[in-house]
From TrEMBL:
Organism (species): Novosphingobium malaysiense
Protein name (record): Pyridine nucleotide-disulfide oxidoreductase
Keyword Flavoprotein appears in the UniProt entry: yes
Record keywords: FAD, Flavoprotein, NAD, Oxidoreductase
GO molecular function: NADH dehydrogenase activity
Length: 402
């Protein structure tokens, strides 16, 4: 009977965990002894970092042929429960019914989801770009605005959240509104942030560029306030200000997948399980955590992986390799990703490219935009289903950075 590695999720970390695991199995010539099963509703990798964009084609490439090419099996379903003691998972099959699968190693790569605090009206009235379906809902709503009576509420978009997702959504929004309402349309885009200034988590160096890009786009900013309530025609801020709007885009952070709650262990403020150097869940034997589900040190000076595709690609490779290595007798590989870059799309102004955890600005405007487009449209997409070519880049210490 073959041993089984079961991977939950076909996001960046899940796909690369599968590619790295099958590579390690092939290196040990154990293809007949170890099976890799990937569980997700469909064999698609959603390009989540791009969902703020106006054009949503090819945002969920099919990875079925890729997984098959390296010898992994895709199971259409959703992991509902994890039984750590029995080493089994219960899967709700897309075709109907449930299936219990025993595993020798389990990799949790189900990512994260948008944070929904208890804000009245948030779930009923706000849009978001967290998943492809919700991004399409927002796109359809924006395109339908022109058919509605012209009012202040129709012509105002509020973005709640001044992190990188909020910045990208806000600076892209004027482009989308001109396309929907006409080149000469009068509209407002308002960015709401609880911090003193948008993008504050990136430190001091990028701030003048963010401010310039927001001004260039005509985006109004409300800092140090939060959204207290949302209804069909307005938002109310903690300052007491009420803004008439039919379009609220929620971009106020993410939390780790709820499946992390079924695995014992220490967690951080985002719900991520604190993993060890090899991405084990330390309190759950046989389980690895990766991508947005794990809090992992990137170096030995205190930096921790961000909840980003940049880190998920490497985290997936390491978790997949180590899960397989434990079964086939290869050395484990500790996770390390000391080089860190950030590239933020800022609409018509361009983009901002920084290096290091202190975010030193390296490129701006058109130069940075070219890098951002290369990242978004090429580097983060899954490779072609060529087994040898995939295995050449699926090793656990392979890192793609500009």
């Amino acid at each position: 009977m073959s041993q089984k590695i079961v991977i939950a999720g076909t996001g960046f970390a899940g796909v690369w965990a599968a590619l790295s695991a099958t590579r390690a199995i092939a290196l040990a010539s154990k293809e007949e002894a170890v099976e890799v099963i990937v569980v997700s509703p469909t064999p698609n990798l959603v390009i989540r970092p791009r969902l703020y964009e106006a054009v949503l084609e090819n945002m969920d490439p099919d990875v079925g042929a890729l997984l098959a090419a390296v010898g992994a099996r895709h199971l259409p379903g959703l992991v509902e429960t994890i039984d750590v003691d029995r080493r089994t998972i219960k899967v709700a099959r897309v075709s109907g019914g449930h299936e219990t699968i025993a595993y020798d190693r389990f990799i949790l790569a189900t990512g994260s989801q948008l944070f929904h605090p208890a804000v009245p009206g948030l779930k009923e009235y706000a849009f978001n770009t967290d998943q492809l379906e919700t991004a399409r809902d927002l796109d359809a709503h924006l395109k339908a605005l022109a058919s509605k009576p012209e009012t202040s509420a129709r012509n105002t978009v509020v973005i709640a959240g001044g992190g990188l997702t909020g910045l990208e959504a806000a600076t892209e929004m004027p482009i989308r509104l001109r396309a929907a309402l006409g080149a000469d349309a009068q509209f407002r885009v308002i960015l709401i942030d609880t911090a003193d200034q948008p993008g504050g988590s990136m430190g001091v160096a990028p701030q003048p560029y963010f401010a310039e890009a927001l001004t260039h786009a005509g985006v109004e900013v409300r800092s140090a306030v939060r959204v207290d309530a949302i209804d069909a025609g307005s938002v109310t801020l903690s300052s007491g200000e009420q803004i008439e709007t039919n379009t609220v885009v929620w971009a106020a952070g993410v939390r780790a997948s709820p499946l992390t709650e079924q695995i014992a262990g220490e967690r951080d403020a985002f719900g991520r399980i604190v993993g060890d150097a090899f991405l084990h869940a330390p309190a759950a034997e046989g389980i690895f955590v990766t991508g947005d589900a794990v809090r992992a040190a990137t170096d030995d000076i205190g930096n921790v992986a961000a909840m980003s595709c940049q880190h998920a690609l490497s985290l997936g490779r390491v978790a997949g390799h180590n899960a397989a290595a434990e079964l086939v007798g290869l050395p484990l590989h500790p996770y390390s990703q000391p080089k860190y870059v950030t590239c933020v799309d800022l609409g018509d102004w361009g983009a901002l490219f920084t290096e290091g955890w202190d975010r030193q600005v390296q490129l701006t405007r058109d130069e940075a935009k070219a890098v951002k487009q290369e990242i978004n449209r090429v580097w983060i997409y899954p490779p072609a289903p060529d087994r040898d070519a995939v295995f050449a880049v699926a090793n656990p210490d392979y890192v793609i950075v500009p």
